């Protein structure tokens, strides 16, 4: 049947309607747009004088309005009619519309109704029938109070139907818990283990066309927190934690041997290779400097910096334990770990240097893999022995990643004092403060290359005009797990 805008509406036996503009199909309408089309066999499409589309099916009668803009059709409103609305039968063979009257031909006779009056019928009101907690029923009132253990809430509701609805529906939301409105045909809802707080349950009844009732049914209730869930208890615990932290920090500064005991306990929890990798990163000197930095911020009453530094330090330890437990890691996780580590070093060196990460466009950082905690050893060496001893100027650290599916190229560039001066400085250090990271890195690379045909290569060069550049080429054909 043709209609306004030069659109030809075509019905099929597969519950779909096509809008054809003479050149192509510009819109397909199925049960995802009009749920009443689900399982329907379309028999005829009729356009009334008001340019509304009427569809006869074996499951009833459907009509809708639409708008056409920029060769796109938008369905405005749709309605369905069945025997529940007074039709002789759901199997509709033909339809004719004049003014507001609809005449349908069915296998059980002819039906006549006024569709405008049908559209204006009232939506059934909804009302609450009960509320219970942990199976115990409570009288409905404006506001209900429950204890923290009475947090399994069940609410029942219903509507007074006027005979217009095939399947009563409801739409509800528990404000303070549900993020979206939920539609259902059930007349009850259950909430388990609700946290303490104020809640407002709202429910509407919904007609067959998806319209809400004018009025809603509501109930307000509060779940009172237990004493350990109150803000003053949490504040007290936070203050107790801060006081304990201050006492512990001062006690620890007088008993530095406790650091060695803590380090020994950590070493016992790891296998030999993991322990060696952890000692390169979490060495006593690094931990001692981090804790001294935290103590400095606390003594300076800089709680914000102390909290940030302590949080970053705890996060670094956690990520180190996670990464060191796996032989390999994705480049994305490695970059995230390195940024966390360098942030701590920047705070420890009081902003003495800046860092710049460069990732080549198109490099698949979520699939590229490399041996875990390998690059960090070279970055630690660049910061500690290259940038750290700088007396004049501002340190710059550049970490770049490039390559393809065959190999990953990583460059660590610093403008530090260079290899020659660094070697002199390290020879003057007490042996317990000398970094063993480079030897550990060399041992790991040698072990990995033993079991792989494609070898990891490393090149250390003097940077111009000063500093050092380390280049690692990591083949991607190898299995580093």
Describe the structure.
By secondary structure, the chain is an alpha+beta fold. It is built from ten helices and 26 strands. The chain is elongated and about 105 Å long. The two termini are about 65 Å apart. The model is unreliable at about 160-165, about 265-270 and about 430-435 (pLDDT under 50).
Tag the structure with descriptive keywords.
481 residues; five-stranded mixed β-sheet; alpha+beta; 33% strand
Helix content: 25-40%
Mean pLDDT, all residues: 82
Low-confidence stretches: 162-166, 265-272, 430-434
- How many strand elements? 26
SS summary, helix count: 10
Percent in strands: 25-35%
What's the assembly state of these chains? single chain
Span between termini: 66 Å
Structural class: alpha+beta
> What Rg, in angstroms, do the CA atoms define?
36 Å
**Overall 3D geometry?**
elongated
SSE arrangement:
Blueprint: E1 8-11, E2 17-20, E3 25-29, E4 42-47, E5 53-57, E6 60-69, E7 72-81, E8 92-98, E9 101-106, E10 109-114, H1 115-119, E11 126-133, E12 136-138, E13 143-146, E14 153-159, E15 169-175, E16 182-184, E17 188-191, E18 197-206, E19 217-223, H2 231-254, H3 257-268, H4 272-281, H5 284-299, H6 303-324, E20 328-330, H7 331-348, E21 353-359, E22 369-371, H8 375-387, E23 395-403, E24 407-414, H9 418-428, H10 437-450, E25 457-462, E26 468-475
Parallel strand pairs: 13-19, 21-23
Antiparallel strand pairs: 1-2, 2-3, 4-5, 5-6, 6-7, 8-9, 9-10, 11-12, 11-14, 14-17, 15-16, 15-18, 18-19, 20-22, 23-24, 24-26, 25-26
Helix pairs in contact: 5-6, 6-7, 7-8, 8-10
């Amino acid at each position: 049947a043709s209609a306004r805008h030069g659109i030809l509406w075509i019905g099929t036996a597969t519950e779909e309607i096509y809008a054809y503009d003479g050149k192509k199909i510009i819109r397909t309408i199925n049960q995802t747009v009009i749920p009443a089309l689900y399982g329907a066999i379309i028999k005829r499409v009729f356009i009334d004088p008001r340019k509304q589309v009427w569809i006869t099916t074996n499951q009833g009668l459907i009509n809708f309005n639409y708008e056409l803009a920029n060769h796109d059709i938008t369905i405005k409103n749709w309605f369905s009619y069945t025997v529940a609305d007074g039709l002789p039968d759901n199997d509709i063979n033909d339809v004719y519309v004049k003014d507001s009257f609809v005449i349908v031909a069915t296998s059980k006779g002819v039906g006549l109704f006024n569709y405008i009056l049908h559209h204006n019928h009232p939506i059934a009101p909804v009302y609450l029938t009960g509320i219970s907690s942990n199976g115990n029923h409570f009288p409905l009132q404006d506001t209900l109070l429950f204890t923290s253990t009475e947090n399994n809430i069940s609410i029942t509701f219903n509507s007074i139907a006027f005979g217009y609805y095939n399947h009563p529906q409801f739409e509800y939301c528990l404000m303070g818990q549900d993020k979206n409105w939920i539609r259902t045909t059930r007349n009850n809802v259950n909430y388990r283990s609700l946290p303490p707080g104020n809640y407002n349950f709202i429910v509407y009844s919904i007609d067959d066309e998806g319209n809400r009732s004018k009025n809603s049914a509501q109930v307000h209730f509060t779940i009172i927190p237990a004493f350990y869930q109150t803000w003053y208890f949490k504040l007290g615990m936070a203050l107790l934690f801060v006081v304990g932290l201050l006492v512990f920090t001062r006690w620890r500064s007088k008993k530095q041997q406790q650091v060695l005991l803590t380090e020994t306990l950590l070493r016992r929890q790891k296998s030999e290779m993991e322990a060696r990798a952890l000692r390169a990163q979490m060495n006593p000197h690094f931990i001692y400097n981090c804790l001294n930095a935290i103590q400095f911020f606390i003594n300076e009453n800089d709680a914000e910096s102390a909290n940030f530094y302590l949080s970053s330090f705890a996060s670094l330890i956690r990520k180190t334990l996670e990464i060191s437990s796996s032989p390999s890691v994705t480049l994305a996780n490695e970059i995230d770990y390195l940024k966390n580590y360098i942030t701590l070093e920047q705070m420890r060196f009081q902003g003495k240097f800046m860092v710049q990460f460069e990732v080549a466009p198109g490099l698949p950082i979520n699939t590229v893999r490399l041996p875990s905690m390998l690059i960090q050893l070279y970055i630690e060496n660049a910061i500690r022995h290259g940038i750290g001893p700088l007396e004049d100027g501002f340190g710059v650290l550049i970490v770049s990643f490039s390559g393809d599916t065959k190999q990953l190229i990583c460059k660590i560039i610093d403008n530090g004092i260079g290899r020659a001066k660094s070697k002199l400085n390290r020879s003057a250090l007490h042996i317990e403060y000398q970094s063993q990271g480079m030897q550990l890195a060399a041992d790991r690379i040698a072990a990995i290359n033993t079991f792989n045909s494609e070898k990891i290569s490393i090149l250390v060069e003097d940077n111009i005009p000063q500093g050092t550049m380390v280049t690692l080429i990591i083949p991607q054909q190898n299995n580093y797990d």
